[in-house]
Amino acid sequence: MADFTGRILPLLWRRSIPARKAAGRPPRLSVDLVVATAIRLADASGLDAASMAGIAAELSVATMTLYTYVPSRDDLVDLMVDEVFGDRGLAGAAPVEFRERVRFYADRTFAMYRAHPWLARVSPVRPPIGPGMLAEREYMLATVAALGLPIGRLDAAALTLAGHITAAARLEAENTLISRATGLTTATWWQQRGELWETWFDAAAHPTMTTVWNGGGFEAQEQDPYEYGLCLLLDGIETEAGHAVSRDSWPRTAGDA
Amino acid sequence: MADFTGRILPLLWRRSIPARKAAGRPPRLSVDLVVATAIRLADASGLDAASMAGIAAELSVATMTLYTYVPSRDDLVDLMVDEVFGDRGLAGAAPVEFRERVRFYADRTFAMYRAHPWLARVSPVRPPIGPGMLAEREYMLATVAALGLPIGRLDAAALTLAGHITAAARLEAENTLISRATGLTTATWWQQRGELWETWFDAAAHPTMTTVWNGGGFEAQEQDPYEYGLCLLLDGIETEAGHAVSRDSWPRTAGDA
DNA sequence: TTCATTCTCGTACCCCCTACGGTAATGGTT
DNA sequence: AACCATTACCGTAGGGGGTACGAGAATGAA
Does the keyword DNA-binding apply (chains A, B) (predicted)? Predict the structure, then answer.
């Protein structure tokens, strides 16, 4: 299993490799088992809990044993990410109509980030180029391609939509992570900073905030920024594609992002 | 200077505290000096380089000395963040017209993330409630308030715009960080994964990607998702406010996000 | 039986944050 | 001048982390 010299691709695509020759001492674990265990630990106790030592202990194995299956912790995280990306299930049965496909994507994505909030702690750039990540790209490209957009705009449109949805899901997940780590709800956290307004806040320097505050503008939020923004983006892309547009209401998907 | 029991607020607002009584041994450093040094290290070598040991060494002081000025590393990062937030200069002279104000905000924000890319590694939720962060909120609220939006929608509109711009700036900064850390450009990184297409990619499972690829859709990007999305959001918000809208082109601000 | 092959993992090194408690330096008071 | 409350300084130690190295154990094949 060893002898990976900075080569993560064969690990990401390991399920496409057909056979396996038996030679030498048989392994006690498998890449899949290590990755699954890491995901389970991260889901339960955060990405930090999925340390090499933690995973090894969970598997009743010495820490260094894991390096037989995985080149490094960073690569393991890549494997974890592509695994949950694939589990989102965008490759199977899916809606056909444009908005339904987008909604399906959003629902699955929010569900993924809720089940695996540690994803919000993994860098969104240069993601693992594995089957899970490619399935996502294929799905979103197919979604906007069905609208009849010119080929030069497909990628931008797909990235815009996926980016907006993902950003909202990540924000919600990050919120969950911090609430868990601190044991404080956002409301409690604000209460702890209550003295801000009495002691430190300078109303004269923040006239608009003061006005909004006094008018109750911070409490009665009429719109969710995520839904509002998504609506605008969908309308714009459909218009771009020359379809008739009706700005119907977008069903709720996000919790409190 | 000691005796902060989880009280970060007085540190964030330390410049609002007028006098300082002299008693006991005089300090060699100051909070401002510690924060400035940490920012300098993080700018030059990443957030990890701004470790307590690293900062102390830079100041020719023992590591534990820093804890006289700052309760913990996390609080120090909060201080760093609010410092650069304030340095953005949104509190001073600024444009008056709506779109110019938004552009001003975007320019300053991208400049901030380019000067301090480590910001992208700091959680965007529950930010430090200091003068720098409040100045930003005041600026964006004043910007959308001038449009005449109802008070219940001001916060959502401000958050939508700020969120879109910030997300793009963070993505660009994260890109910079990874390029620095790995010493690889994104192009080189893709080259390393060139074998993906020959060895692992299954064209039959990704028909749309294959079509777009063969049509050159991944190379000739006609639009920047950031600019495109921002345009749509601005149009929508202005429409909401009942203004006349002309979808004029939004000047380039982002680099390659 | 021997051997190449492969997996297992103890040790060691370097990095991080920070609790604790002792020590040094000051201004004010006696 | 001596003393003291106050504040700053920091050495030590303990608990995390990732992983390079190399010796030992288990297997199938020759």
Answer: yes
